[in-house]
């Protein structure tokens, strides 16, 4: 199938409005290439930030890209998009140069093009995530290499929430521990726990596609004798308590089952939660404390939060 890549050069002020116009025209999402990304200051704590290629960004302003199927109605759709963007000036929105360009993209190329942006990334003192199609030689003797084939749906393992969870697991998982991974996704946290010496890991996800992806990655990293993957909602498939429970999901979901989570963490055990935006940090902390947890540590990266909480000894 052929797709049309539609690119609009505009201003930072108009990004949200242009994105909305493209969405209403049939795009399921947009790609934003911001010239400010080249000069943005970032914290390079574990070497996870790589040099950006200036050729991938506009010299000024912002390029908003969307993908539309090449149908017989495309010409009319593009004209409607042009008119809608031009009309933004009537709302006192500066649209800048407003240059619109198009090119064809074959679905086969589109499905694999993202791989060029995914390289080995050291995300903690010991963990390095390596895509399956890359060659990598460990730098340290105790380095833990997680091979990952995330596909287009389950992320690369380098999102701040995942990074913080792996950093937390690195400090809390002890050899022989039992671990539960709620919302496992690509399985990266379960794999990490197994590599840290966990005796058993119970991974679960509500999405059947995620379950298949996790199983593939777990087998790829040869920890299938430690990690078991189940299809289930939150704690439905969990029968026994664990030393460490990790949930990298969403703040509202985390807060919806803190009482249940408390019951499946062993006394003295730890509960690692993430997927929490900064604005929700205090709400999540309060929900955890109401259920009986004590807050051990709060990690922050960009605008994301991870919380390490402990169930007190009885």
Descriptive labels:
Rossmann fold, 30% strand, 314 residues, 28% helix, four-stranded antiparallel sheet, Alpha-Beta Plaits, seven-stranded mixed sheet, elongated, 14 strands, 2 domains, 9 helices, alpha/beta
| Rg result | 22 Å
Find the CATH topology of the largest domain. Rossmann fold
| Content of β-strand | 25-35%
The residue fraction in helices comes out at 25-40%
Can you describe this structure?
The chain has 2 domains: 2-112, 2-Layer Sandwich (Alpha-Beta Plaits), CATH 3.30.70.120; 164-310, 3-Layer(aba) Sandwich (Rossmann fold), CATH 3.40.50.150. The longest helix is centred in the N-terminal third of the chain and has 13 residues, at 74-86. Strand 5 and strand 6 form a beta hairpin. The chain has 9 helices and 14 strands. The chain is of the alpha/beta class. Helix 4 (160-172) runs parallel beside helix 5 (188-195). The model is unreliable at 45-52 (pLDDT under 50).
Topology:
Layout: E1 2-10, H1 15-24, E2 30-34, E3 62-69, H2 74-86, E4 99-106, H3 107-113, E5 121-122, E6 127-131, E7 144-148, H4 160-172, E8 178-182, H5 188-195, E9 200-205, H6 208-220, E10 227-231, E11 242-248, H7 251-256, H8 258-264, E12 265-277, H9 281-290, E13 294-301, E14 304-310
Parallel strand pairs: 6-7, 8-9, 8-11, 9-10, 11-12
Antiparallel strand pairs: 1-3, 1-4, 2-3, 5-6, 12-14, 13-14
